[in-house]
Amino acid sequence: MSANVVIGDILLAIGAFFYFLGGLGILRMPDVYNRLQAGTKATTLGTFSTVLGVGIAKPEFLLKTLIIIAFVALTNPVGSSVLARASYLSGIKPCDCTKVDEYKGGGEE
Amino acid sequence: MSVFITSLVIWLLLTNFSYSELLAGVIVSIFVALIFRKYHAIRFDWKFLVRFAYYTVVYLPVFIVEMVKANLDVAARVLNPKLPLNPGFVQVKTQLKGDAAKLFLANSITLTPGTLSMDAKGEKLFIHWIDVKTIEDKEKYISKRFERILKGVFE
Amino acid sequence: MIVLFFTLIGIGVILAFIRVIIGPTSPDRVAALDTMNVMLTGLIVVLAYVFNRSIYLDIALVYALLSFLETIVISRYLEGRK
Fold first, then answer.
1. Of A47, B4, B146, C64, which shows the fewest CB atoms inside 10 Å?
2. Which residue of C has its CA nearest to A87?
3. Over the stretch B64-83, which tens digit does the pLDDT of each residue have?
4. Dihedral of CA A17/A21/A27/A32: which sign?
5. Weakly modelled stretches of chain C, pLDDT under 50
6. Domains and CATH numbers, chain B
7. Which of B71, B74, B90 sits opposite A100 (nearest CB)?
């Protein structure tokens, strides 16, 4: 085993652990907005770590894995933002523990 | 024209280099550029590329450190049996003008600790914050760090 | 070692899929589905590493593209429905 394979395996393990945390967060959080928070953050870092680990362990894959990382980093937050906005506008109530709401009525003045 | 160059570069990154591939890439890129000509979404010149490369070096470490912090925060919340949550919707003001700058700011906000950007109307950004600390001076917690750097890139 | 990665990612996918099944509202389901799609993208990349085939990376890229489009389209639909 050479050094880059070891580093790649460590990154893969971290990424897999964050994937697991993302799934757990999706299951445990009380309402859709908190679920999106946990899911998006954990899976984005999980993808960074996993895919970069594969790219380091196999240097001939590195270019394409960097493209996949850039793509996921650009699109995943956009998708979750659109979904949060859509669920607010379609009338999903946030959970009872929500303190302040400055977005009432879709942000219209 | 810039659409043509961008799609050609992406094509070359995705395929192995050979002359037939290059020819096919040129043809496809011309079609894409013709279709998307009326949107003019991507505009850049050389000065912008140089600034972009410089600030990528500055921006990326800040971003990665924030993202790791965000994930440790989420991990602590998820693994805690009591689920410590204190969520709320807040709005913050931003001084950034361009659409691309706002997109990057919103993405950075989403990936930093406890915040998820929802909507942008004019100069206001609406954010779901998982742990509301204060309702005044929210910009200090949420967007200040990135706004300075992104201002340098896009303006 | 590889088995450990597959176990962890598999448990994550299963937890997200439980949320897809029991989720009380449709945005819950879509959020869980989005999370699951990103996980599956990572899983395809790990498969490319295990089987040593670079074509799997293209599959992962196209899968990420399609899942992003799916999330956007369903969100627009939910937003318009009220």
1. B4
2. C27
3. 888 888 888 878 887 877 77
4. negative
5. none
6. 2-35 (no CATH), 46-154 (3.30.70)
7. B90
